[in-house]
Each structure stands twice: as structure tokens, then as C-alpha cells.
């Protein structure tokens, strides 16, 4: 699973975190991001149309890696498996999620924000984590400090990351990629400005690359 997550994260340094409010936005929005050069997407389960949005994106963009985010329970994890998610992202982690993820064929990126939470995930065999909410949990300094006791763990920080602070994280050896909603500003989505979103993705892909 670590290998699977690494190969997904190697495709892009920046993962747009997307919340779909209107189902008809799903495919054009995802297409704009992928065409702009960001082929790994996380769609949050925060809206009623999220699962249908992911289904449509997968069908329209078979080359993209599509993760399901904001997974809080094993039941939601199962839904993500059923719609063929490439990976699952959780904001935090529970014992139930850890246990479910160990058995699942879909890899999970569990959310942690403290060294104790990291140790719990580590004990379950997880090696790749989401660090959330990154900016309010100590930011890049915290991730750098995690590298002392557990240097092999790798992180995808999200929460408060923007084009201006992404590099502070990406330059750390234990950060594999960053995620955030800054690539899908509400104003552009509401205006259906897919060219504008493609351009934001293009700039991010150009500025941050492996
Ligand atoms: C997430 O779930 O990762 C966050 O909502 C993304 O955080 P951001 O909106 O601060 O980028």
C-alpha cells in the first residue's frame, strides 16, 4: 500500500481538494485540473452529490487518480471502494478506520496532526499520512520534527496551504506532496470559469514539480 500511495503521489506534487456543490460542475472542473497538469484529485464526501461526482469523473477521465476524501467511517470507506476510488483520505483516524484500511484493497492516507496519532498509525502499519490541519497544527516545522523520531514516515499536508507556503512543505524530505482547495476557488467554480481553473492548475504544476 505504501508503494501504491507513493506511485500516486509521484504523479503530482499538488493534489487539489475538491468539494462539488453542483453535480454538473464535476466533469468540467476535474478536466480543467487534469488538463492543467494535476492528475491526482481528492473529492471530499462533504456534499450529497459527491459519490455521483466521483463516478462521473472516473468515467470521463480514466487517466486521473481519484481519491475520496473526508472519509469518517468504515461505511464511507466501503462506498469509496464500491465506486472504484484509487485511494481514501481521512481527516483524522479512528481505530475502526485503521483496521478497515489494513484489510482494504484501496489504500488509505490517514489524517494525523500529533506525534501520538502518528505513532498509533505507525503501529497499525501505516507509513504515509495526511497532516491535517497543517497550518494550524504546527505547519512545516511540525512535520520536520516528526522526522526526528519517525524518519521513514512521509506526509501530504493539507489545511491552509496556498501557492505561497507550499514550498516550505515541499522542500522537506518527509513531504511527498501537498493538498488544498486553493486550486478551486469558489468564485471561479460558481462562474464556471474552467479556463481560469486550468490556468491555476498549470501554474501550480509548473512551479511545483518533482
Ligand atoms: C482538506 O480537507 O484537506 C481541507 O479542507 C483542505 O484545506 P484547505 O481548504 O485549507 O486547502
Automatic annotation (TrEMBL):
InterPro entries registered for this protein in UniProt: Aldlse_KDPG_KHG, Aldolase_TIM, KDPG/KHG_AS_1, KDPG/KHG_AS_2
Chemical reaction(s) catalysed: 2-dehydro-3-deoxy-6-phospho-D-gluconate = D-glyceraldehyde 3-phosphate + pyruvate
Pathway the protein takes part in: Carbohydrate acid metabolism; 2-dehydro-3-deoxy-D-gluconate degradation; D-glyceraldehyde 3-phosphate and pyruvate from 2-dehydro-3-deoxy-D-gluconate: step 2/2
CDD domains: KDPG_aldolase (cd00452)
Class of this enzyme: lyase
EC number annotated for this UniProt entry: 4.1.2.14
Keyword Lyase applies: yes
GO molecular function: 2-dehydro-3-deoxy-phosphogluconate aldolase activity
Keywords: Carbohydrate metabolism, Lyase, Schiff base
Pfam families cross-referenced by the UniProt entry: Aldolase
PANTHER family: 2-DEHYDRO-3-DEOXY-6-PHOSPHOGALACTONATE ALDOLASE-RELATED (PTHR30246:SF1), 2-KETO-3-DEOXY-6-PHOSPHOGLUCONATE ALDOLASE (PTHR30246)
Subunit structure: Homotrimer.
Family: Belongs to the KHG/KDPG aldolase family.
Name of the protein: 2-dehydro-3-deoxy-phosphogluconate aldolase
Source organism per UniProt: Onishia taeanensis
